[in-house]
Specification:
Length: about 210
């Protein structure tokens, strides 16, 4: 085992030495040319990573192919096609960026609301983070996963905007408990028939 380790170390040192030798052999003019390519490569790599993070994957093989074809003046696309494609991608990236900004803003507002709401008297924070506030106690058993329940409810965002309907009036719905979103199921498990409550459901439970 010790011999293997020494061999691997020797190989690693050899690669470092060769790399250094190549760099030292470059003339100042050669280094300038190489640096142009390295700088361009770093920029393309950075852009590809950022765009992929936004949700717009980049095929690096085709990026390199397009770059090499352009350097040889043998592009497979016309100038018009290139401009159109880049404009389309720019629009897509703008939309993805705007969606990310909105998502982050909504997340920050939601976390702030949850933090403030959990301090209200009567609010109980359930295991998943769903906040439950009983307004009226019901009677009888709590609903089970296989039960069909009739609910009358109003859904609102943390800023008070209703999303169940434009008017914000109560909606009546009949569902099997197991088909509901996780946060709704957990909230219902705390209730009894005829009860009335407020659920504040974190985004990851909705």
């Amino acid at each position: 085992m010790s011999i293997l380790k020494k061999t691997m170390l020797s190989v690693a040192l050899t690669f470092v030495f060769v790399g250094s030798a190549l760099a030292q052999d470059m003339t100042p003019e050669a280094k300038e040319s190489y640096s142009l390519g390295a700088s361009l490569g770093n920029y393309l790599s950075s852009q590809a990573f950022k765009q992929s993070e936004l949700g717009a994957p980049v095929n690096m093989d085709l990026v390199v192919e397009g770059l090499m074809d352009a350097l040889k003046n043998k592009s497979k696309l016309s100038e018009e096609e290139i401009v159109t494609s880049l404009n389309t991608r720019a629009e897509k990236l703008n939309q993805l960026h705007e969606a990310k900004v909105v998502k982050e803003k909504n997340r920050a507002e939601s976390l702030a609301y949850l933090e403030k709401n959990k301090k209200k008297k009567g609010v109980k924070v359930l295991a998943s983070g769903v906040q439950y506030e009983e307004l009226k106690a019901g009677t009888g058993p709590s609903p089970k996963e296989e039960d069909v329940v009739t609910m009358v409810y109003v859904g609102k965002l943390v800023n008070g905007t209703p999303f169940t309907n434009a008017e914000g009036t109560p909606a009546e719905e009949k569902d099997v408990v197991m088909t509901l979103i996780p946060g709704f199921k957990e909230g219902l498990s705390q209730m009894k028939e005829g009860g009335k409550a407020v659920f504040v459901i974190p985004a990851d439970k909705g």
